[in-house]
Structures are given as C-alpha cells and as structure tokens.
Amino acid sequence: MKKMPAPYPGKMKNPGLYLHVPFCEKLCPFCPYNREKYDTDKYAEYEKSVHKEINLYAKNVPSQKYVSLYIGGGTPTINVPGLVRIIQHMKASFALDDCDICVEFHPSHMEEDCLRALKQTGVTLISIGVESTNDDLLKRLGRNHDGKTALESVRRAVSMGFRSVNVDLMFVLPGQTLEQLDEDLTRMLGAGIDQISTYPIFGFPYSEMGMEQGIRGIRRPDEALIRTMFDLIAIRSRESGFERCAVWSFLKPSRKKFSSITRHHYLGFGPSAASMIGDHFYVNTFSVNEYVEALSHGRPVALVMEVPKRIEMAYWLYWRVYEMRIPNEEFSVLFEQELEEVFGRLMLIPRALSMAEKNGHGYVITEAGAYWIHRIQNEYSLNYINRLWGRCRATPWPNEVIL
Ligand SMILES: C[S@@+](CC[C@H](N)C(=O)[O-])C[C@H]1O[C@@H](n2cnc3c(N)ncnc32)[C@H](O)[C@@H]1O
Ligand code: SF4
User: Per DSSP, what are the bridge partners of residue 165?
Assistant: First the structure.
C-alpha cells in the first residue's frame, strides 16, 4: 500500500459504513486494535472531526443505499451522547433506512441508560466483549471488569430486546483449564444470547503483551489444547441449540447474525478505519491527533492500494470462507462471472482434503475445514494485519507498506 491520493467511491456493491472509536477506559495489554486511553478533550476533537469526515463523504459520494452501519473500537460506548450524535448524523447523511446498526460493547460501559439510548437511536445488533467470566483469568488479562459484571451486563442487554446479542469469549488464555472454559460456555450459552464467538488469544507482536514478551518470545498456544478447546466449544454450543454460522461463531437458528465481515464494499470513518470501494482499498491514519489535523483541510487517508478485479474476487472468497458458505449466485451478481470458472480449480485442493464440499448452491466449508481456517487466521493476523497495523501504529503517515 502506498501514500497516494485516494479516489472517492462511485456506486458500490452492497456497501456498508464503518465507524472506528479509538478510545478505551483501560488499555488491555493483549489488544491489537487501534485505541488509546479516553480523554474528554481528545474525544471532543475526534467527534468534531468525524462529523467533518461524514460531511466530506456525504458531499462527494453519489447517493446510494447502504446495507449496514458497523461501529467498532476501542469502546464505542465510552461517550454515549457523542456516539448518539454521530449515529444521527450518519443516518441524516446516508441512506441507512431499515438497515442494521451494529455496535461492539465493553461489559463496563453498558448501563441501562446507555443501552436504551442506543436502541432508541436505531442500534439493532450488539456484541459484548466478555472474554471470560473467571475473575483470576480476567485479572491476568488486565481487564477492568469481573465475571459478575460481565454476566449482569449480558443479561441486561438480552432483556432490552435487541435484534441480536453476540458474546465474544477468548480461549487458551494463560493458565486456563478446560473446566474454566466449560464454565464460561455454560454461563454464556445459558444467558439468553443469540450468538457466541470464540477466539484463541493471540499475542500480536506490537500489542503491549507482545512487546513485553518480545517478538522471539511470542509462542503459539499449544496445538493439542487449542484443538480440545475448539471441539468443546462446538459440543457445548450445539447442546444448547446453537449452530455454526462462521468459523468462530455459533448462532441460534433463525436469529440474526452479528458480523463485521458481510459487506462487500464499505466506507470507513475515524482513525485507522479502512475503506474497500471496489477498485481501491485504503486506510485512514491511525493517530487521533493526525486525523484531527488532516480533517482541518482535507481527508485523513494514509495508505492506498489499487485493487484489480482478481484481487477483489479473492477478497470476497476469503471472507465467504470464514462464513463457511461460498454462494455461486452472490458471486455471479457481484462479478458477472461464474464462481466455478474463476475458483473451481482452486477449490479442488480443499475438497480433496475434505475441508470443503460442493453443493447445488456453491461450496460449504466442513467442520474439519473450520478448524484449520481458525488456525490459519493466526498466520494471516501475524503476516498481514501485523505488518499493516504495526507500521501504521508506529508512523501516522507511512510512505509504503508491502503486504
Ligand atoms: C474491540 S474488542 C470488543 C469490544 C470491547 N472493546 C471489549 O474489549 O469488550 C473485539 C474482540 O476481539 C477479541 N480480541 C482482542 N484481542 C485479541 C487477541 N489478542 N486474541 C484473540 N482475540 C482478541 C476479543 O474477544 C474482543 O472482544
Ligand atoms: S480489548 Fe477492548 S477494551 Fe480492551 S483495549 Fe482492546 S478495544 Fe479496548
């Protein structure tokens, strides 16, 4: 990706909007996301600049219907009135009628007032970063909430009647036993939620935890333990009536899926937000100060990449693999070519390894495939996300990052 001018998008395909809120009350040492400690004055500057960025896009992008608004962080609810103002401005500037508004929550920032205000503003799908309900593990992770708060927050959210409530758990935590994971699963699956997502903890070299351990010291969690825990998550989720809906998620039948990856094209707002507009992919500067400064006279885009059609197709395929379904029809609508023609040969390998199967609608990923994709994601995280995010966190305006 290079430092170069980013074109504004024209008409996009199934476009979504993304907002990044880069502030948290306490910075968890394992976290790879772009975030900094919350400060009221800095938030005010950030908010002012987000409104400017919304105005810029509203003026320069042809009017079109968006399929969703996704708000991630950081902790989006760190300043609820600010978030409500931004959502209202987005709704007034882009065609978001009837679309889902998805928000990531931290268990310590979801009091009833906050949940009610967001529901009234149109938030429909929510995800809660519980991570674990075990107090010792939460302390070891550097989280600023305990298991009781997490469970109460989840129950409160469920009682508010959102369209869907997802809970994030992490596993293979330092010193975590199978029994502790089992207890987390029992508590969460029994709390009335619609979806559960589980991630094996990974020490990104540039996260505080990664820095402390040193790049050479970053060890992969034990393979056999990951496998046993991965299997336990599937068993417990199915026993509770959930079905796998993505490599890392299980959903109750007929409930709405919470997902950050279903949009083909999207426009990103806020520091570090990425935009995929079809023929270009670009990312905003990660620095809040530089983001604010850039918006005083122009756009905050730091790095841009041209996207040839074949790469756009590969990008689509990558995310469909995570969702375990690769539908022929969606591919032909988006690209006016047949999936089989473009990726049929490539799919022979996962089929031969029993990781994928062909059916009348395209391909599905098998359970064996789900496990390996889960594992490969760590490679991807290290190689791609680490290179791009690590560099962008270190330098607000890098000249180039080779992916
Ligand atoms: C932006 S956070 C969720 C919202 C909120 N900031 C919070 O922490 O509760 C997104 C999720 O990514 C997962 N995550 C973060 N760091 C991770 C890591 N190093 N390894 C695996 N999963 C991680 C956690 O499950 C976390 O809930
Ligand atoms: S895990 Fe969540 S709360 Fe913790 S630093 Fe990352 S974004 Fe913030």
Answer: 126
Residues in the chain: 403
| Residues lining ligand 2, Cβ inside 6 A | 24, 27-28, 31, 33, 35, 73-75, 106, 129
Residue 306 CA to ligand 1 center (angstroms) comes to 30
Q: Is 60 exceeded by the pLDDT of residue 218?
A: no
Percent of the chain with pLDDT over 70: 93
Q: Give residue 326's identity as a one-letter amino acid code.
A: I
Least confident of 6-10, 258-262, 312-316, 379-383: 379-383
Q: How far apart are CA 285 and CA 292, in angstroms?
A: 10
Query: Which ligand 1 atom sits closest to the C-alpha of 131?
Result: 25
Q: Specify the DSSP class assigned to residue 341.
A: H
Distances (CA, A) of 7 to 52, 281, 330: 18, 10, 26
The secondary structure of 127-188, three-state, reads EEEEECCCHHHHHHHCCCCCHHHHHHHHHHHHHCCCCEEEEEEEECCCCCCHHHHHHHHHHH
| pLDDT tens per residue, range 61-93 | 999 999 999 999 999 999 999 999 999 999 999
How many angstroms does the Cα of residue 296 sit away from the middle of ligand 1? 32
Q: Which residue has the tokens 């990856």?
A: 261
CA dihedral 290, 293, 299, 303 (to 10 degrees): -20
* DSSP three-state, residue 309: helix
Q: What's the predicted TM-score (pTM) here? A: 0.94
C-alpha of residue 199 to centroid of ligand 2, in Å? 14
- What SS3 state is found at 364? strand
- Which ligand minimizes its atom distance to the CA of 105? 1
pLDDT at 291 over 80: yes
Place of tokens 């009682």: 159
Pocket test for ligand 2, best of 21, 26, 30, 33 (most atoms within 8 A of CB): 33
**Among 141, 247, 225, residue whose Cα is nearest residue 179:** 225
